[in-house]
Amino acid sequence: MEGLKFAHSVRTRAGGTRQSAIVGVVASGNLEVLVERVLPDAECAIDIKTAAVGFGEVWTAVVGDFVERYSPGGLRFSINDGGARPDTVSLRLAQAVRSIAENGQ
Amino acid sequence: MTVIETTGASPGLDCGGEARRGAKAMTSWQTNRATRDGRISAGAVLARGKIVEARDATRLLEAVIRPGDRVCLEGDNQKQADLLSRALLAADLSRINDLHMVQSGVVLPEHLDLFDRGVAKRLDYAYSGPQSARIARMLFGGKIELGAVHTYLELFARYFIDLTPQVALIAAVSADRDGNLYTGPNTEDTPTVVEATAFKDGIVIAQVNDIVETVPRVDIPADRVHFIVKSGKPFFVEPLFTRDPAAITEGQILTAMLAIKGIYAPYGVQRLNHGIGFSTAAIELLLPTFGERLGLKGRIATHFALNPHPALIPAIETGWVRQIHSFGSEVGMDDYIRARSDVYFTGPDGSLRSNRAFCQTAGLYACDMFIGSTLQIDLQGNSSTVTTSRIAGFGGAPNMGADARGRRHPSEPWLKAGAEADPDGATLMRRGRKLVVQIGETFGDKNVPLFVERLDALELAEKLNLELAPIMIYGDDVTHIVTEEGVANLLLCRTAQEREQAIRGVAGYTDVGRRRDHSMVAHLRERGVIRRPEDLGINPLDADRSQLAARSIKDLVRWSGGLYAPPSKFRNW
């Protein structure tokens, strides 16, 4: 296992009122993302635990593009990764933002 | 008028009468026929009529085949002459050795055991899917002298020019006592192999599942068949074209949506061929849902050169597909095909008539698009399924995934693609272009990148001292590359540098993708050379499995009204 932590300053706060959401599954080639609305509006944190060691550079690129595109202010993402491909990671992160942007608890 | 063919049929035409008589005395013009008759006589000792018992199959082959012969051991994409393979493998090496195998598919372990034992020495072939790792090891180990890896149509063509078989060992469903053969839905390569062999003084030996009074239809006439061996069990057929919808990923669905909206729709592609991967299976399953909502029914995907893919059943049932011609059949599809004869080609007996050579020709000349996946794409768009440890061969992709330079009939997609490639050309003189689309996810199995700086095929060619690297589709034939990152239209690229950046631009987070020139990629996107999901009005979050018309094999059975009978390995209920 490898642990990676990213912290980004973002332009705007993520929409919606839900406090947390979970998408995906922990499985080989897949990942689970827990997203919680626990940070100041201009901050975003992404903590990764991954089974695939040595892909830090790719994670940096994927996370950078994701933050740039969705501006997920106030959100902390905790990822359990089973060696998912970058496109799957991008999709799950986008799904997590959509999930927490819904109104409700 | 120019005479473009000459013939040697009139020897000594200009000579005096005496010289001509002299030539006749010395030259026999029918040695091959005499040899064939000798082989038939040697085999006839073991036969009653044309029928030889299975236990005598090896003795028959020893009687008929000579050392060094060119032999086609029918290994098609699907159907395998497995009994005759085993019989040949058991041959006495003092009687049969150093054969030159000319067969499209190297599929069974026995096909390679022949080389290990020394029964065979040289190989010309087209496809070796299940044996790809072993064939690579044997080539490196010097066990096989490789002629070339061909496309199907190319190998078939050589059967008639310089690789004509002396003996063909073929497979059929049934034979009558005269030797008329019924090949059933998997006719595949048989007519081509028999044509080349029987009409050039070769010997045709067929293994059949049954000997019957009257065959359901005559696929091969009796006078082209010399011996028949009844097999104890049906010949082996591989279900190669069944993709379980349950295994289709969201990434493949997104890629399929991009292809439909970004290529099928704007070009109005009606006549096409699909590869066998999951991305194209996803396209087939999105036609009745996503395609329907886009109003594309009747405007795209109406005529196919395609095997009977189970994944196409929902599109057929909803009236999308008008006609399909097939290379071979698919396990479990027989009853469905029989009941949908308006769509498929069927014989007087009601079952599918497939024919690989004709269908490949149809794919080359009568289809406006080929779309399929590959294992590696380089910066020029060259693609290959060959890696240093696996040589899977090409099958039909290089043939269908190539511009047909002999094509002369116009069609909307062909002309539009031609105009995009050469906007300043004179309209009436400008060739059209076939759409050759490579579709895939930026990372494949085990996170192996689809995009590479240098193809493994080059390393293989260097190691094996090949004169030509095994490229599946050359970059100059590829018109579009589709990944989950978007569609790259290579027809619109004007320089090699633009082409490279267009490819890097859809290569995602692979090394090739991360080394893109961001400003150039942005410029290419403004010009529509690269189109992202959002440029096509597609939200990646909509790419979920609820979009698929069938989400399991069982759904496909339901769509077929119970006519599709999937093989047991695809049944989980």
From TrEMBL, chain A:
<dbReference type="InterPro" id="IPR009662">
    <property type="entry name" value="Malonate_deCO2ase_dsu"/>
</dbReference>
<feature type="modified residue" description="O-(phosphoribosyl dephospho-coenzyme A)serine">
    <location>
        <position position="28"/>
    </location>
</feature>
<keyword id="KW-0597">Phosphoprotein</keyword>
<dbReference type="InterPro" id="IPR023439">
    <property type="entry name" value="Mal_deCO2ase/Cit_lyase_ACP"/>
</dbReference>
<keyword id="KW-0963">Cytoplasm</keyword>
<comment type="similarity">
    <text>Belongs to the MdcC family.</text>
</comment>
<dbReference type="GO" id="GO:0000036">
    <property type="term" value="F:acyl carrier activity"/>
</dbReference>
<dbReference type="GO" id="GO:0005737">
    <property type="term" value="C:cytoplasm"/>
</dbReference>
<dbReference type="Pfam" id="PF06857">
    <property type="entry name" value="ACP"/>
</dbReference>
<protein>
    <recommendedName>
        <fullName>Malonate decarboxylase acyl carrier protein</fullName>
    </recommendedName>
</protein>
<comment type="function">
    <text>Subunit of malonate decarboxylase, it is an acyl carrier protein to which acetyl and malonyl thioester residues are bound via a 2'-(5''-phosphoribosyl)-3'-dephospho-CoA prosthetic group and turn over during the catalytic mechanism.</text>
</comment>
